[in-house]
Request: fold
Amino acid sequence: MQETTIAILGAGAWGASLANLAAANGHAVRVWSRRGPSTLEAVLEDAQIVVSAISMKGVRDVASQVQSLPLLKETIFVTATKGLDPQTTSTPSQIWQTAFPNHPVVVLSGPNLSEEIQQSLPAATVVASSVAIAAELTQLVFSSHRFRVYTNPDPVGVELGGTLKNVIAIAAGVCDGLQLGTNAKAALVTRGLTEIIRIGNFWGAKTETFYGLSGLGDLLATCNSPLSRNYQVGYQMAGGKTLTAILFNLPGTAEGVNTCQVLMRLAKQQNITMPITEQVYRLLQGEVTPRQALDELMLRDIKPEYNY
Ligand SMILES: NC(=O)C1=CN([C@@H]2O[C@H](COP(=O)(O)OP(=O)(O)OC[C@H]3O[C@@H](n4cnc5c(N)ncnc54)[C@H](O)[C@@H]3O)[C@@H](O)[C@H]2O)C=CC1
Ligand SMILES: O=C(CO)COP(=O)(O)O
Reply:
């Protein structure tokens, strides 16, 4: 394909990996970070695609900075952040779409542990948008022999899969840290997916999307890998460390900690049952120990697996 000019916002682990993938495909890539040498204006100049790989806490602020700068009429925004806005419960793509109503917004999400991608190990991901041609262009820009990119027409489902699994990944870290075994982990991940689908449907996401790469796929990757920062939070809490100490030493962002708070608030407001999320929330708040959280989950009222 033709060379595309791409601005990557955020030079953390994920922004750097996405920049490498696009540059390896021969595109003109410029990277901006708040402490980097280039101005946002210079990085955005003539960009056909703007990729946001900023932690959730910076998305709203950066989107409003970009609003005041010149852009091409046809610029596509691609968001790769996996989080929820604490004030509004908006997803990152909703923030970008509200800030830029006349530009297409694409969500990029999948089982993509950045350290593996930096080692050139093979991986797959999903690009989703209500504007099919924008997703297809993004697919072309990032696809390679080591990065297989699928399109999907359910952006909210793809985005929520990547976001909500972070909370279950914390629980999976606890499960492994307490050495609860493979049966327990399988139960946790499967019931976690049920919980994700329950609240995802409330958001308007399609159930099938959660069975794909950005849902089940990412859940499997992060719940089974010590490379996941969210998994590390749970694993180290099971080992007796405090959340503050873990976050202080963690390389990069564990979005699940904030996402869990936002989710709990929403689940309570909407009366949606989210038992695993609730126990992760109580653990992070210091209200229960990892063992107490486990007992709470195991001793819930018995019930059918599904309410058909
Ligand atoms: N690392 C990974 O394996 C993957 C990460 N993600 C998601 O990508 C996002 C970024 O993750 P990482 O790159 O790993 O995190 P990171 O902590 O390595 O980098 C975060 C980036 O966001 C920027 N940032 C943070 N707050 C900001 C603010 N207030 N204003 C401007 N910039 C700000 C930082 O300067 C940095 O460039 C997260 O939402 C994460 O869930 C998604 C897929 C894979
Ligand atoms: O989202 C990720 C992999 O798909 C990265 O997971 P962590 O943020 O838990 O490291």
The longest strand covers residues 123-128. The chain is about 55% helix and 10% strand. The pocket of 1,3-dihydroxyacetonephosphate (ligand 2) is lined by residues 82, 111-113, 162, 166, 169, 218, 221-222, 228-230 (CB under 6 Å).
